[in-house]
Amino acid sequence: MPADGRKRIRELMTNRIYIELAIKDVFRLWSASQLQVIIIAGICLPILLLLGLKNGHVADLREDLVTSPVGRQIIFWSLKQGEFLTKEVLRDIQGSIPNVSLIIPESQKLVFIERSEDQGSSEGSSPLTLYSTLPGDPILEQFGAEIGSAAPGARPLILSEPTARALHKNIGDTATLTIKRRFGAEDQEHTLDFKVVGTVASGGESDGFVGFTHLDIMTCLEQYGSGEAVPELSIPAMKSLRAVDQYSQMLLVCFRGQATDLTAKDHAFLAERGLLAEVSTAAEITSLFGILKPEAAKELKFYMLRFSGEQDNPQSVIRDSPELLSRNTEAQDDLLLRWCDPLTVQVNGRDYQIVGLTLPNKRQTGGWIQNFVKPRAPWFTYEESTATPLSVRGPVAVLADLGNKELAFTPTLKASLQPLEQQIDDTEQTTTSLPDDEAVSLGEVSTAYVPVSLLAFITQASRNQVTLDSESKKFVPSSSQVAFTKARLYTATIDDVPLAADLLAKRKYAVLSEVSRIAEIHEQDTSLKMLVAVVALGVFLFGVITVFSVLVDSTDRKKGMIGILRVMGISGSGVFFFLLARAIIIGVMSAAVCCGIGVLLAAVLGKTIAGTEYLAWLPKVHVVLGFNEYLLVTLGAILCAVLGVLMPALKASRLDPFDAIVEGQFH
Questions:
Q1: What is the reported pTM?
Q2: Given its phi and psi angles, is residue 309 left (phi above 0), alpha (psi -120 to 50 degrees) or beta?
Q3: Same-domain pairing of 466 and 398
Q4: For a tag on the chain, would you pick the N or C end, based on fewer CB atoms within 10 A?
Q5: Residue 570 sits in which domain range?
Q6: Mapping DSSP to helix (H, G, I), strand (E, B) and coil, where does residue 367 land?
């Protein structure tokens, strides 16, 4: 074995001997050791009780908030600047705020719950206010209710106890709810069967009938209320629901000349509306894709109106009508047309440009624009047109029946529906026309013409803004993402509430929570910690001085024994280690006594002693002691003993063996 290894083993064996000597010395001189244990335990016990009283007081303050879900709850809602609560926004909030357990968007709907004939109702149904919830909702959990997951086809329902009693509904029963909606002059109602999965003791009979269901179902009911199709409930869109054609561009046509062209005031007016008018000299624009006579390019001037600056977004929508803009410009006889960029299509394998073109009639323009149109040109008005039926075929393409030819639009639509009649506004007709043999061909690509509103719908469909409804056979708004304005957020603990509330406020949400009460508890906790620290430090310092005095005297009494140990070959460091080990043992024993008495006092002070009137004056004190407190007191007791013995041990380790024996004889 190497020399270093043998030396290490000898050191370990020597240290073990010192520890055994220290243990034997503690019990050999038990009367002196007992006094030292009592002194150190008496020093640490007040500190332990102070910590327990502080914890108990804070626990009493926190009890109502901890046991109630309201303590961890933050209600927040959108104001003018707060974002609406879509799925993406809620996901971002939950990811950016630490320790968020659950976010429940708040939604409520008035539905009607069916009464049985034996319940004495002549109406057959009663109004029921339905609220949204999610699995793990603390509000429902405190009543022992759980909504569960909304599996496909499952419709769980939790009723308030007054509602369940009035309707004679038990857990497991089926409840039939009637939902209603109105869009324009059309009314609809549908019935849905729900399964009662629980009851909660909330509200009274005077509050009306109340129920809770899964958020996913409430989202479907929100879509239902807006007239949309709800595939999850097998409900089609309302027949009167239709999409609105939208435009991000307009084409302005006016005569050339100072009196008839746009003026500086006209450009300023358009700029106020966020629009920029740019002159267009492209041949396809100045000829309206071949339907205007050649002289039109010489006499007419064409402007393309688009959003300017930050509003320059291809999907931005011009809300102003062409009539409003034309009426407020100084240019004479100016004409504004709604405009969409053409799409590339194929007809029998040949490329075509499909152009959306709808011109006003002669009564609206005085007929001047019609004078520039070629004979037999395929153009459209709001009242006059040559109708050719359109249809939609197949799940991936929109097809137009143009004689014996098929027009395949790209990008494709997802729906497979037909026909497209009455897809456009009531004042328009769904029409199209394919250029005949005399139609103008621009380069290698021929041109096909449809109403601009149809092209607008197809463009919107490519952006998933509209779709074709299978029942109504119309373009309808795509299923909108339901956005909520209010939600309940729950943090993991009440201590996480202040930070979460602050982060929500920074996102411009209005916030309602118990943050003021929680802040008050934290302030009291901090103040009490400071008080306990000051008192404990004072007690500890005076305790160390007391222990130092006792151990100095004890060490002086052991000088004879120390001298004998030194003569027997124990080094000065060995004597130091022996006394230090003895002090640590005394500290551990003191900590055990202190913790034991602390547990006993905590149990006694926390109980009300019945039948002892003479002890009624004793207050009921809540003392909370945990692992951290016991560990702190144990370390404190050991530290107190070590600091008390440190100087005497150093002094003893430097004594001359024979002088120590001589001095020890006089003690």
A1: 0.60
A2: left
A3: yes
A4: N
A5: 3-65+519-664
A6: coil
